[in-house]
Automatic annotation (TrEMBL):
Region (Disordered): 420-439
SUPFAM superfamilies (UniProt xref): FAD/NAD(P)-binding domain
Keyword Oxidoreductase set for record: yes
UniProt organism field: Nocardioides luteus
Recorded superkingdom: Bacteria
Entry-linked InterPro entries: Auxin_biosynth/cation_transpt, CHP04046_FMN-dependent, FAD/NAD-bd_sf
Keywords of the record: Oxidoreductase
Coiled-coil features, chain-numbered ranges: none
Protein name in UniProt: FAD-dependent oxidoreductase
Length: 439
């Protein structure tokens, strides 16, 4: 095994790991970025062919690098995101080692850490003083424990493996989960003319546009994405919330499941169990639709309040009115009777940090930390959803999180969210004035 020495090892070469490298490079800190595949490969590997961002392009800002295309309020496709992110590393030349998969991280008795990996030339080890784990929070796709009991003639795949309607067998498709991936995959299949069945959970929704502007632009200016998680109602429990569903397809629009249903999509409540071709469904459809609409309206009201408080002269509000109501609340579904040949599980991921040998994880396997800094000296995390704010884990919030973590590493004074936002070139938000945080 070849042994190397450096000051900091960054595990993961996605946008979070590269952002940390940018700051460490700026501050003259020796480090290495270890990436199992190629930098940013997740965007190409785990998004479907017609994927688009749900956040406006102007959100795409990393330290020293930002979207500079012709449509800042539009939504890049998967391939455009891949190309944009691929242009980042060449702007500053990070010490990036691709195709180097970290297999273990342990504390050394004499101090620091030993990072072991498999690289292009075989096994290697890195003796380092500090580590930044920037592998994100989505590692192992979740499927129900009873999924193997379903009829084997029905294909099953996770949302991470879905690419297009044309790659699926003919027949109906059941999408399970109505978070961002589930709702957008259901939309993709629906637009391709497939018979879609969608089992929805408790995901909220948000308007794409309100009063002449994108809702996410309004919320950014209201300061929502920069508010620390501890300041939200329920505090750290906000990390468990599902993101609102919306789409960037065709220039961006609402995802209205009621409209899809009016056009022929079949909607169901929460999927509870199954065996063979029979599925059991909780009668939660009506409540789930109403709850998602309530959040939609709540966010619009918060934006209205912000507009009024700022005295802005913008387009008038338009109230949402439901276009469809379920006649029944189904409690079962027969896959064979409905001609369903494929199930797509879009119910999330679980973390997998078994390679990190340190006592910093809670009972669910998630790292415990304060703004990315763990209780083990020198061990840090970056790129987690809700790591510090709602913007964490998104392009919009990475600069602030990365500067804070690297500031702890170097021991210099933290330059604050506002300073990191300036470095990323992002517009400064106004004061927080919204209850959308609880949505």
């Amino acid at each position: 095994m070849t042994t190397h020495r450096t000051t900091v090892a960054i595990v993961g070469g996605g946008q979070a790991g590269l952002a940390a490298s940018w700051f460490l490079g700026r501050d003259g800190v020796d480090h290495v970025v270890l990436e199992a595949g190629t930098a940013g490969h997740e965007w190409a590997d785990t998004r479907w062919d017609n994927f688009t961002l749900v956040t406006p392009n102007w959100h795409c800002r990393l330290p020293g690098y930002e979207y500079a295309g012709p449509d800042p309020d539009g939504f890049m496709t998967r391939d455009e995101v891949v190309r944009w992110l691929a242009g980042y590393a060449p702007t500053f030349g990070p010490p990036l080692r691709e195709h180097t998969r970290v297999t273990s991280l342990t504390q050394r008795a004499e101090g620091g850490f030993l990072v072991e990996a498999e690289g292009p030339e075989g096994a290697e080890a890195w003796e380092v003083e500090q580590v930044v784990v920037a592998t994100g929070g989505y590692h192992v796709p979740v499927v129900p424990a009873w999924a193997p009991a379903l009829d084997p003639t029905v294909d099953q795949l996770h949302s991470a493996d879905y690419k297009s309607a044309s790659r699926l067998r003919p027949g109906g498709v059941l999408v399970v989960g109505s978070g961002q991936s589930g709702a957008q995959i259901a939309e993709d299949l629906h637009l391709e003319g497939r018979q879609v069945h969608l089992a929805i959970g408790d995901a909220p929704r948000v308007a794409r546009f309100h009063r002449g502007r994108d809702c996410m632009t309004w919320l950014a200016e209201m300061g929502l994405y920069d508010t620390p998680v501890a300041s939200y109602p329920g505090g750290l429990a906000a990390r468990e919330k599902t993101n609102h569903y919306v789409t960037g397809r065709d220039g961006g629009r609402d995802i209205d499941l009621r409209q899809f249903a009016a056009e022929g999509m079949r909607l169901y409540g929460r999927l509870e169990a199954g065996a063979g071709t029979e599925l059991t469904i909780a009668p939660t459809l009506r409540d789930a639709l109403d709850s998602a609409d309530d959040v939609y309206r709540s966010i619009c009201r918060d934006i209205d309040a912000h507009i009024e408080a700022q005295g802005l002269d913008v387009a008038p509000a338009e109230a949402y009115r439901p276009v469809w109501e379920p006649e029944t609340d189904p409690t079962g579904l027969d896959l064979d009777a409905e001609g369903i040949t494929t199930i797509i599980w879009a119910i999330g991921y679980r973390p997998d940090y078994r390679w990190v040998r340190a006592g910093v994880f809670d009972g669910t396997g998630r790292p415990t930390h304060t703004r990315g800094v763990s209780a083990v000296a020198g061990l840090h995390f970056l790129g987690l959803p809700w790591m510090h704010t709602w913007g964490s884990g998104r392009f919009l919030g990475i600069a602030a999180d990365a500067e804070h973590v690297t500031g702890v590493i170097t021991g210099r004074d933290d330059r604050s969210i506002e300073r990191a936002a300036d470095l990323a070139g992002r517009r400064s938000p106004g004061p927080l004035n919204t209850s959308a945080a609880v949505a």
